[in-house]
Amino acid sequence: MKDAIRGVDYLREGLRLMRQPGLRRYVAIPLLISATVFSVAIVVGIHWLEILLDWLLGWLPAWLDWLRYLLWPLFALTGILLVFYTFSLLTNLIAAPFNGLLAEAVERHLTGRSLEDMGGWKTVIMDIIPSLLSELRKLLYFLLRAIPLGLLFLIPGVNLAAPFLWGLFSAWMLSIEYADYPMGNHQLHFSEQRKRLRRRRLLALGFGGGSLLLTMIPVVNFIAMPASVAGATALWVRELKTTT
Measuring CA to CA, which of 31, 67, 70, 136 is 20 to 30 A from 187? Predict the structure, then answer.
């Protein structure tokens, strides 16, 4: 459990780093994208959350109507996870090139490497297509696992555990999502990224769980993406870079 707690600490480190004077300008565009997308998510999510809850509860037979009051909080949590995690994927897809640049700036801040050696703003244009391809690869990885996991919600009895399994899966996916930016800057392939994270699974889950919690809090989720990118970069520099 110490690794899991330390993973959450890296998210707090990310919140501190994104406020540093030399890094604020790199946070501006990801923060603007995040605020815009999650503002839409809050408005749209309120409407579709009610529809989703009605659909999930509609699977209950009439004689189990009394269970609605017990299951509503569980299904509400499920809906919130689905809505905000989906919008988190969209936010990262749009902001991917700028997140890579933010990761470079944070690593330079932590290690002392000059920004020129790491690429600078000129890399944003050059990295647009590779960044989008990387995001699409992560999206495919997510879908291949999310679809069978989502089917668990349809199995009576098993669906009670489904929200908790989805929460763990979301934490793992967010750790992959944000660790990709600093690792990708060092040309580590997606398979190698996952291998390093699996070696420190509890550390990764702690970090991803903290990021997921930030993502689920309205307004606070505006800063979830840049804070997670900065925190994942600190995690890479101090824990994962030298993993063998």
Answer: 31
